């Protein structure tokens, strides 16, 4: 069971809403537990089954939710935030924050092959909050090269503008390119706005 970086960052929603006074409002922070019970059923109707109830609760605001499924969950994947990227602490580099994507299954030793760049420390919740992205690949000779793009459309890797054929020898160099391009875009936007005044 794997989700894309864009699924983790932009296409999950809070499971339920905390009370608006709760310090966790707008977050997905819940205490989660599970209860299983064997239910008896005649053979003609499919036989016995396990009913699973998942309990979500917040001890601060008191919101709780019980979800029942008439079977064991189909699939459960025990993983880590490092493997998913999402949920890991962002990295600060050249004045921006880098939010990691998942570790690639085929080459996890190289680290996440994608980072979303943002101005603020919080994980981006929409593509619009992303300044750009950097990602890496290995050349046929095995050298690590970084690519960069500015802006982000809805897909994991699709950007408004990329560095074309230019690749970078390090993550830092790729990040510097995004920061410079995003600053140039912003200066252009300010100029355009002034011209309309
Ligand atoms: Zn709460």
Describe the structure.
The chain has 197 residues and is an alpha+beta fold. The protein folds into two domains: 14-69, no CATH class; 81-195, no CATH class. Helix content is 18%, strand content 27%. It contains three helices and nine strands; from the N terminus they run αβββαββββββα. It has helices at 5-10, 81-84, 171-195, and strands at 31-39, 49-57, 64-69, 91-93, 96-100, 114-118, 132-138, 144-150, 161-162. The strands form two sheets. A six-stranded antiparallel beta sheet has the order 4-5-6-7-8-9, covered by helices on one side. Strands 1-2-3 form a three-stranded antiparallel beta sheet, with no helix packed on it. A hairpin with a 2-residue loop joins strand 4 (91-93) and strand 5. The longest helix is centred in the last third of the chain and has 25 residues, at 171-195. It is extended, with a radius of gyration of 22 Å. The model has no long low-confidence stretch (mean pLDDT 90). The site of zinc ion has 8 residues, from loops.
Keyword list:
18% helix; alpha+beta; 3 helices; binds zinc ion; extended; 197 residues; six-stranded antiparallel β-sheet; 27% strand; three-stranded antiparallel β-sheet; 2 domains
Task: Describe the structure in brief.
The chain contains 3 helices and 9 strands, in the order αβββαββββββα. A 6-stranded antiparallel beta sheet has the order 4-5-6-7-8-9, covered by helices on one side. Zinc ion binds next to loops.
Note the topology:
Elements: H1 5-10, E1 31-39, E2 49-57, E3 64-69, H2 81-84, E4 91-93, E5 96-100, E6 114-118, E7 132-138, E8 144-150, E9 161-162, H3 171-195
Antiparallel strand pairs: 1-2, 2-3, 4-5, 5-6, 6-7, 7-8, 8-9
Bound molecules: zinc ion.
The site of zinc ion has 8 residues, from loops.
């Amino acid at each position: 069971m794997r989700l894309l970086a864009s699924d983790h960052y932009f296409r999950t929603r809070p499971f339920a809403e905390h009370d608006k006074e709760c310090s966790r409002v707008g977050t997905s922070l819940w205490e989660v537990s599970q209860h299983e019970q064997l239910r008896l059923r005649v053979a003609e109707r499919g036989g016995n089954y396990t009913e699973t109830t998942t309990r979500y609760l917040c001890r601060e605001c008191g919101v709780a939710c019980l979800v029942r499924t008439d079977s064991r969950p189909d699939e459960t994947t025990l993983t880590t935030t490092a493997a998913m990227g999402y949920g890991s602490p962002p990295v600060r580099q050249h004045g921006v924050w880098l939010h990691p994507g998942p570790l690639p299954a085929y080459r996890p030793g190289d680290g996440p092959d994608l980072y979303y760049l943002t101005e603020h420390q919080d994980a981006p919740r929409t593509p619009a909050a992303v300044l750009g992205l950097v990602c890496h690949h290995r050349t046929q000779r095995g050298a690590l090269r970084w690519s960069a793009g500015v802006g982000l459309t809805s897909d994991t890797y699709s950007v408004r503008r990329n560095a074309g054929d230019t690749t970078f020898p390090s993550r830092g160099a790729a990040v510097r390119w995004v920061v410079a391009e995003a600053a140039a875009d912003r200066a252009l936007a300010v100029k355009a706005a002034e011209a309309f005044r």
